[in-house]
Amino acid sequence: MHNLGGEDLKLEKWVWKETAEVLGVLGIIAGIVFLGFELRQNNDLMVSEARATRASIAQDGWGYVIENPDLIDLLIKDRNGEQLTEAEEFRLNGLWMQNLFLNEFSYFEARDSTNWAGEARNFEAYPSLRNTWQGSSPGSKQAGKDNFDPGFVQFMEENVVNARE
Predict the structure, then answer these.
(1) What residues are paired with 140 via a beta bridge?
(2) Tens digit of each residue's pLDDT (9 = 90 or more) over 19-72
(3) What does DSSP assign to residue 142?
(4) From residue 48, how far is each of 38, 102, 114 by CA, in Å?
(5) Smallest Cα–Cα separation from 87: which of 148, 128, 145, 143?
(6) Rounded to an integer, what is the distance from CA 101 to the centroid of its chain?
(7) Mind listing the pLDDT tens digit for each residue in 120-148?
């Protein structure tokens, strides 16, 4: 009978050991599930931050035009195909380079669903932007695209600059 009690004790130890192992595995699974939720929340937050960054960039760009109303006349003149002076070309070159640097930031850092079709329309509408990109005017002798990462230049050439073709 004493021997039977020893078997009961072994069985009881085995049950506790197996229970502890099952609880440990369940704890690991719960930790992995929790980590999955945390990663999802972090990804959602990153997407939200990218949208906020893009909105801030757009506001800054439009704000610059609003704060410098003489640019509006230059943009209209450019869009209408009127001859620009060298100083006007240079001024618009600065505006376009600022815009292009912000686009490069959006491309690499924000990683959002930027509407590149709008940028393609700008390339089609404004000769000074094309001149800035190519470096083919009195206001921009160096190709603006030479100032950017080759991956961004390739993306722009394929999806923006030549999108109208």
Answers:
(1) 137
(2) 888 888 888 998 898 888 888 888 778 777 777 777 777 777 777 888 888 889
(3) S
(4) 15, 18, 13
(5) 128
(6) 13
(7) 888 899 999 998 998 877 766 778 888 89
Helices and strands, counts by H and E, the chain:
6, 0
Q: Please provide residue 87's backbone torsions phi and psi, each rounded to the nearest 5 degrees.
A: -65, -40
Written as one letter, the residue type at 113 is S
Query: b/e map of 100-137 (b: 16 or more CB within 10 Å)?
Result: bebbbebbeebebebebeebbebbeebbbbbbbbeeeb
pLDDT(163) > 90: no
Q: At what angle do helices 127-134 and 86-105 cross, to 10 degrees?
A: 70
- Tell me the C-alpha distance between 69 and 39, whole Å: 45
Half-sphere CA count of 149, side-chain side, radius 13 A: 12
CB neighbours of residue 65 within 10 Å: 13
For residue 165, give the 3-state DSSP assignment.
coil
What are the tens digits of pLDDT across the range 76-93?
Answer: 999 999 999 989 998 999
The kind and range of the H/E element at 9 are helix 2-67
* Surface-to-core class of residue 140, CB atoms within 10 Å of its CB (0-12 exposed, 13-18 middle, 19+ buried): buried
